[in-house]
Known about the structure:
Layout: E1 5-6, E2 21-25, H1 30-41, E3 45-50, H2 53-65, E4 72-75, H3 83-97, E5 102-105, H4 121-148, E6 152-157, H5 161-164, H6 170-189, E7 195-201, H7 208-213, H8 226-236, E8 247-249
Parallel strand pairs: 1-8, 2-3, 2-5, 3-4, 5-6, 6-7, 7-8
Helix pairs in contact: 1-8, 3-4, 4-6
Keywords: Oxidoreductase
Pfam family, one: adh_short
Family: Belongs to the short-chain dehydrogenases/reductases (SDR) family.
Amino acid sequence: MTMPRVKERAPLPVDALADRVVLVTGACGGLGTATAKAAARAGATVIITGRRKRQLEQLYDAMLKEQLPEPVIHPMDIENATPGDYEALAEGIERDLGRLDGIVHAAVSFPGLTPLSMHKPDQFLRAMHVNVSAPFALTQACLPLLAKAPDSAVVFVLDDPELLSRAHWGAYGASKAALERMVEILHQENDRGSLRVQCLLPGPMRTALRREAYFGEDTFRHPPPDDAAEAVVYLLSPQGAAARGAVLDLRKA
């Protein structure tokens, strides 16, 4: 069984995420940065996480320059983080901000297009960890806090399964398939109550990952990740309840 696909989304008010606290992983990537800004623009207090503190500080400065609500920086290398690190993050959010209303798992590891016979085991394991195990561990640590919110959502980012099941997509393709199955199980375990579990399936975007995966393609013919970020805001908002347990599919027919 695969998660149902939906394509429709309702219009959002300007303050769709007012008074909410949202955690964005991989905040310095293309989709992560766009999502952090879009969520802040919608009124959320955004916690931005990533491996490199300097890049997080640059994003912080850029958001303030755009007169967006001040984000909260929390450097975290999810490749090497322990369950204790995730628990400490959840405890710190509750202590300092008092609530958590959403998580956006935008962090990703893409080791490149490689035949499985040539895939370096450490790269395979790293991709599986960053793309599947780390989102699991972080979500699990934050579940008690998310459950306290009157309406909360965890958003996972997928990729085109029709492409990723082909040759050479290796660990990235396998990890995205595993991620969808994990999310489906998590939804089945949380199909009632205030916590929603859902996925975003973007179309082609102008990102560094796209340039690396499709070498030689003119990436600039694709749109920036802004529309995908707005779709994430929709999923995080009360209106996103219509896509509970589903994949919001932004690919063109």
